Structure formats: structure tokens, C-alpha cells
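Hi Y.,

Following your request, here is the sequence exactly as I used it, all 199 residues.
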Amino acid sequence: MATTTPSAARPRGAARRDALLDAVLRIVAEVGTDAVTHRRVAEVAGLPLASTTYWFESKEHLLTAALERAAERDIERLDDFLSDSAAAIEDPPSIAVDAILGPVEEREQANRGSLLAIYALMLEAARRPALRAINKRWTDAYLDVLERLLALAGSRDARADAAILLAAADGLLVEQLTSSDAAEAAPQLRRLAVALVAA
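Below is the corresponding structure, written out as C-alpha cells. Let me know if you'd prefer a different format.
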């Protein structure tokens, strides 16, 4: 079970809301969306139950806001990554793969929980329409970045190629989450990116 935040370090205001959403993501990663309740979120965040009901009126609201927080952080990471990546012109396919997977130093076990939570919430969009718009905005942000990079590499249909590359990445990442002997995703995605551009 996730550890709680010591009461001496309890966040206040908007930071309290963020702490609650981080707790939602931890719960979803560990035991799934069915386990998300106001009480459990408060316990994991180390905050009073009243905090959850103050900020979030329902479980649906908790899940939607948690996915939105994850999406906003990742879209910001994507924007920063692209603006900081001087190698984009030299090797756009590799940079496209790095944009999806994140920098090499971040691809560790610590990301497993984050990926589990994100994919679980994305799948919830099939049952919860409120999550669909966030899913679409997040996917579009990836497609915009990948389209630019693959166009730089010479793709003749960069948007379609971006969609194929992103779908393949999702498949490989889910395989890694569910299998102990899944192959490393990066080399396979680089190979696919190069093949798409050459097609």
C-alpha cells in the first residue's frame, strides 16, 4: 500500500489538490480505478477526508482531474523536450522515439507505476465519456510533435506515420507492462520510424 504524507508536511491550497490527484494516480497504478474512493485518496495523500470532497464532488471528477493532470504534465514535457532537442534536425526518427518514451535516464522501473495508471485511465475513457476529450487532446499533442519530426525526416504522409508510430509504441509499452521478458521498445520503434519514413 502507498505511504502517506507526514502530517507535518501537509500541502495547502492548490498544492493540496495536486497531492490528492497524485494519490489517485498511485491508487490506480497499484490496484486499479475501482479502488478510488474519496476516503482512500485522502488516506494515501495523508490529508483529511474533507479535502477530497472540497475539491472533487465525485469519483468521476477525481478520475477526470487525475488524467488531466497527467496529460498536462506530459504535454509540457513534450513541449520542453522538443524545444531542448538540438538533435531533432540531425536524427528526427530517433528524436521522435525519444519524445514518446522520454529521455533514456527516465526509462526505469519508477515509470512503471505511472504508465500503469495512465493506461488504466485511458481505458476508462471507453466507459467514461468525460475522459475522452482529455485522451484526444493528449493523443493530438503527441501526433503534432511526431508529425513535425517525421516530416523533417522526409515522410510523405507524416500525420499517418505519426499515428502508426504512436499506436505501435502503445502496444509495445503495454506488452512491457504485462510481460517480464518483453523486448526493449526503443530499438523496435526506431526501426519502425525509419521504415515509415522510407516507405
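The radius of gyration is 18 Å.

Thanks again,
Q.
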